[in-house]
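#onboarding

Welcome to the new folks! Below is a worked example of what a typical request in this channel looks like: someone posts a single protein sequence, and someone else replies with the predicted structure as tokens. Don't worry about understanding the tokens yet, we'll cover that in week two.

Example request:
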Amino acid sequence: MSMLKEGKVPHELLSQICRYTGYRRNSIVHGPFPGFDVGTLDLKEVIEDIQYFYDTDSVPYMTYKSDPITFPTSNPARSLIIVNQNDLATSGSRGYVMTITMLFPLETEEELVLDFQKSLDEVAKNEEITILGGHSEVTSAVEKVVLSGSFIGFVPPEFYIGKDARAGDKIIFSGWVGAEGTGIILEEGRDKIEKYLNDKEIRKGRTIGSDISISNRVLAVNKLYHEEISMVHDITEGGFRAAIYESLNPLNLGAKIEKEALPVTEVSKKICKLLDIDPFSLIGSGAVIIYSKPESAHNIVRELQKFDKPAKIVGEVKDSSGIYFDDEQVYSKQTDTIVKALRNIEKID
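Example response:
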């Protein structure tokens, strides 16, 4: 294939891109097609799909989410879809359709553009997301590939999760602390980091680093305990510290967290010590905080443990007396330590 010129991708390539649209649905009236600028949904079909999934007669809310992928990742297409799906799941929503903007730097070959679309198609099928439309172009405005997605989900009102945490709620953590960051560090610093780890640690780090989805867990427990769950927040940039702060501080609530209760793998501990970084501030997609009424917390934990990931009650919501890790107060949203980690990799002998 040839090198692309600056501007929109050529018609012939666009025609190929439009073949890869993820999960197929009867509710799609019009999907991606050259020369047609909008995607169209049959809302009657959508409502029936959502009512069947949640086993309800309620007319669902529509939810919306948009995010780009800018941090280092070996599979940006997968990261884009999973990260946005995770955010929709925190509201109890089932992701349904997406649009995608792909911006490529100068001197991009046609094959690379098509490979990105094929990757999106594969992940979207697995996640049951339909690609409804998008935009692709080569531009001098970027120096590397930039993917940005807009996602629409649906959730019946009785399953909708808002920002309703209250003092006395239990704080449940599901997943591994700093898992995604561990995977990124292993990928970016492979030659320098892996000589300090054994084979078992490397396999574990890569496994937890690639397992970044929370949607199945959250939707499953929400179906069973939607009346008991008051708020859900996924762990992303800034790690657990940022997530606990940005979810509770706007509500003028505090928390008491048992630091030792938070699950950190040995490989994450080893990497963080080597690079002099805090695992609790390390990007952590794949982990989630669920706030619940105290009487249901243990049942929710048991349900989460069926997904072969650690799940524990790690603390309790307090009034506005501050957010504490044991006796250490968290004063503001934490900066993600992944940037420091990637810098420190270069200093390793």
